């Protein structure tokens, strides 16, 4: 590949060359060095953890000492286990009342956090954890609170609503966690957060985790935390195998250059970040015009539509997801091949958080960055932060629809039945390999929600399977099935 550095970019990039000595890293610390309850060591084993990540090594000791902690940590840094082990250690399972409250910006993140906390709590018998989020009916959540949980994970608005109705008491909360606090503030949750904090005991432990530390976060921390220990884990120190490429573009030609980049690098999945909600729809529409299977994710989508978009991206039924920063929070997709900055964000912390979504779990990753001339100071700041000489790539914009756009490997079928119908993934697999006559290798990810389920099918088999499922039965019953 030919790498060319435009004259203006070269001047800016040269200033970003590393000027400090390499930091000598020590061996990762073991969880066995911590004073953890034996039951929690079972959970660590269940998750396959062997050594602590940097945020865990720095945050867990003060957390276990019941200190307040304010931590800056990027996506994929292991922060959920850090605060999860701390709050589980603080619980008294014999007391049937909410003792820990974790607030998250989105339902998806709350679900993700809840699942990991349940696995960490594998060795704690009879522990109850409730996930309380908006976007789903209130009735079942009210019913579930008839027997109080030990741990509550939820979004601020829904938790506040349940507290106001008298269905949930926070009087015995020992640990309050604010996860991705910067995005909760971006989404307007600060009044709800402050209200909920006031309803918890003043003696509680407060743990605040944020990808970025803007002034509003520091102000919130100063007002809610006491003598807090500050932990900072820069995404640039995470040693992820990510290649960063920068492309100088004319502002009016960003989209055809983006399409050319995706065609050149052909990532199996790409998450494209835009700075505004309006841009997300325009960019996704343009990429679809070029032939890419592109979806859009922004804050105004209904919850059902949001779920379907995330399901299709996670199960490889769409190769490109175009999103805003707020909407992308809580995406539970481990293997994202490339992160694309359609336009550089205004601050380096946001850029680090974005690109931290690729190159995870030891896999290779790619970040592609489109830069107009006016964006070069931002690129310079990024290079200085990560201590690298920026690599610049020259790309010719696409002039028309190309014939060789990669097609998503899977297609998604929606079944109008879910957990409420006692439907399980195994029932769906049985119907697909039985009446539908599909080989198991052609079946991808299955997601079962309360009232509907989604299954990824090899694209070349999807139409055939759809016809057979419509004509047949699942678990002895007929359900409506459609292609998403």
Explain this structure.
The structure is a single chain. By secondary structure, this protein is α/β, with parallel strands linked by helices. It has 18 helices and 18 strands. The chain has helices at residues 7-14, 38-46, 54-64, 79-90, 107-120, 138-144, 156-164, 181-186, 190-198, 215-224, 254-265, 277-290, 303-314, 325-328, 348-355, 376-386, 425-433, 462-471, and strands at 69-72, 100-103, 129-132, 151-154, 175-178, 205-210, 229-232, 242-248, 270-273, 294-297, 320-323, 338-341, 365-371, 391-392, 410-415, 443-448, 453-458, 481-483. The longest helix has 14 residues, at 107-120.
How do the strands and helices of this protein lay out in sequence?
Layout lengths: L6 H8 L23 H9 L7 H11 L4 E4 L6 H12 L9 E4 L3 H14 L8 E4 L5 H7 L6 E4 L1 H9 L10 E4 L2 H6 L3 H9 L6 E6 L4 H10 L4 E4 L9 E7 L5 H12 L4 E4 L3 H14 L3 E4 L5 H12 L5 E4 L1 H4 L9 E4 L6 H8 L9 E7 L4 H11 L4 E2 L17 E6 L9 H9 L9 E6 L4 E6 L3 H10 L9 E3 L1
Parallel strand pairs: 1-6, 1-7, 2-4, 2-5, 3-4, 5-6, 8-13, 8-14, 9-11, 9-12, 10-11, 12-13
Antiparallel strand pairs: 15-17, 15-18, 16-17
Helix pairs in contact: 1-16, 3-4, 4-5, 7-9, 11-12
């Amino acid at each position: 590949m030919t790498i060319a550095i435009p004259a203006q970019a070269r001047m800016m990039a040269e200033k970003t060359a590393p000027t400090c000595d390499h930091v000598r890293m020590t061996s990762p610390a073991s969880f066995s060095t911590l004073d953890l309850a034996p039951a929690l060591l079972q959970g660590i084993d269940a998750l396959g953890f062997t050594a602590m990540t940097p945020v865990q090594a720095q945050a867990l000791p003060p957390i276990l000492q019941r200190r307040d902690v304010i931590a800056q940590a990027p996506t994929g840094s292991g922060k959920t286990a850090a605060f999860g082990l701390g709050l589980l250690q603080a619980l008294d399972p014999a007391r049937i009342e909410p003792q820990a409250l974790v607030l998250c910006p989105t339902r998806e993140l709350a679900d993700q956090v809840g699942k990991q906390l349940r696995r960490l709590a594998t060795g704690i018998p009879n522990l109850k954890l409730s996930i309380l989020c908006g976007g789903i009916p209130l009735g079942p959540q009210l019913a579930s609170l008839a027997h109080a949980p030990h741990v509550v994970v939820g979004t601020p608005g829904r938790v506040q609503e349940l507290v106001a109705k008298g269905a949930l008491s926070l009087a015995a909360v020992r640990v309050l966690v604010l996860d991705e606090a910067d995005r909760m503030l971006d989404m307007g949750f600060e009044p709800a957060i402050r209200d909920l904090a006031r309803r918890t005991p003043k003696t509680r432990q407060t743990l605040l985790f944020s990808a970025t530390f803007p002034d509003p976060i520091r102000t919130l921390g100063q007002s809610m935390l006491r003598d807090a220990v500050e932990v900072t884990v820069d995404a640039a120190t995470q040693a992820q195998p990510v290649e960063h490429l920068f492309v100088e573009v004319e502002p009016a030609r960003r989209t055809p250059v983006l399409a050319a980049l995706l065609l050149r690098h052909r990532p199996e999945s790409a998450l494209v970040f835009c700075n505004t909600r309006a841009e997300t729809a325009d960019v996704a529409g343009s990429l679809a015009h070029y032939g890419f299977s592109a979806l859009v994710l922004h804050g105004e989508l209904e919850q059902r539509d949001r779920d379907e978009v995330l399901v299709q991206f996670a199960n490889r039924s769409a190769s490109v997801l175009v999103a805003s920063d707020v909407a992308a929070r809580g995406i539970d997709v481990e293997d994202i091949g490339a992160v694309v900055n359609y336009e550089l964000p205004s601050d380096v912390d946001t850029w680090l958080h974005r690109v931290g979504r690729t190159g995870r779990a030891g896999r290779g990753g790619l970040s592609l960055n489109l830069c107009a001339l006016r964006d070069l100071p931002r690129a310079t700041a990024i290079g200085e932060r990560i201590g690298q000489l920026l690599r610049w790539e020259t790309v010719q914009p696409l002039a028309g629809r190309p014939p060789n756009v990669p097609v998503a490997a899977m297609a998604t079928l929606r079944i109008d039945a879910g957990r409420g119908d006692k439907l399980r993934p195994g029932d769906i697999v049985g119907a697909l390999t039985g009446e539908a006559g599909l080989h198991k290798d052609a079946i991808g990810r299955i997601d079962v929600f309360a009232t509907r389920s989604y299954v990824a099918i090899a694209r070349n088999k999807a139409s055939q399977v759809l016809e057979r499922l419509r004509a047949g039965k699942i678990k002895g019953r007929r359900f409506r099935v459609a292609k998403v």
